[in-house]
Fold:
Amino acid sequence: MVHQEACQLYIEQQIKEGLAEGKSPKAIGKDVSAWVGKLFETTIPPETIRTRARRIKTVGGQMTTPPTTPLNPPQIPDKPPNQQEDMLGKGKTRGGGRPPKHAAKKPPPPPEPYTDAVYFATIAVSQLSRIRVEDPRRDEAIKMVSDWVNDQKRRKT
Structure:
């Protein structure tokens, strides 16, 4: 913060000195902007300094408003309470009004949990149906599947 205040003070002093020497605000802006870049390692556009120099020239060398610092925050005038009510209207509150369109709709119900059980069972039946009737180990394969199904039923309960 001290760095910023020092930079502001330097700019004000250089503007006053330049105006006292008879320099134009444009020349002051260009020169001071270059020096601020070198001394304070920051960039301030020449247009900003030129505008400030014009303001100081017209006011007579006095700052119109003090720079804002943590000790001197910018002053924002408060409106009287009755004026705030007039702006809102009687009986109205801040944030009132029509709700957004998306708020009127109910959210969709959560989707049912996705399950692959029926899909896999269909594949299993499809594969088992490919076993030919003449295959000598067909009964053995069907018994294996039957045992597996019974075992799975027992695990669930």
About this structure: DSSP finds seven helices and no strands in the chain. The radius of gyration is 41 Å. The mean pLDDT is 78.
